[in-house]
Amino acid sequence: MKIVLLITITFTLLGDLVANQPCQSYNNNNNADEFVKRHIVKKIFDRTSKTEWERYIRANQICATTTQSFLEDQTSVEKICNGKGHPISNNGDLCISDSHMRVYELKVKNNCKVTRISDAMKPVIVACNIVGNRCRPVHFERYINQRPIPRSRPCRP
Fold first, then answer.
1. 8, 30, 49, 97: which is deepest, by most CB within 10 A?
2. Structure pTM?
């Protein structure tokens, strides 16, 4: 009886651990597309211009958030979830990039008015889930000196 109980507890704990790791199946396939719309800038424009940023966020209908973060290289961001990033917690789907990337951060008022633009090279943190048989970023997490789990395996499906 004790062995059966021990086996049951072990598989329950392993199931919980695996379910909270990066690159697991996720039931909302729209999150990856929404991530790209909200955080990946594909248009070329003057990144130092508040007017140009205002035009961009209006055109993409993403004015509602007061602090917005943008990245330029979708391929590099997707690689965070596919071998070029490591988990930052034991109970989540967040992965931190192995390298620094340029991150643009905007402060935006309700009327789509950009009040501040900053950019910096820093690690990027994203939540990674399986979407359409690929591990893709579905959420951007602000970097606040988080570190990868020591000796963790890379994030990947």
1. 97
2. 0.83
Q: How far is CA 95 from the centre of its chain?
A: 7
pLDDT score recorded for residue 4? 37
Tokens of 69: 């973060």
Long-range CB pairs of 41-49 (<8 Å, 24+ gap) are 41/70, 41/71, 41/72, 41/104, 42/74, 47/104, 47/117, 47/119, 48/117
Q: How far is 74 from 136, CA to CA, in rounded Å?
A: 10
Dihedral of CA atoms 79, 143, 111, 54 in degrees, nearest 10, equals -50
Number of domains in the chain: 1
Distance of alpha carbon 34 from alpha carbon 137, whole angstroms: 10
Range of the domain at 47: 21-141
Could you read off the pLDDT of 112-133 as tens digits, one per residue? Answer: 999 999 999 999 999 999 988 8
pLDDT tens digits, 73-90: 999 999 999 999 999 987
What average pLDDT does range 131-152 have in this prediction? 91
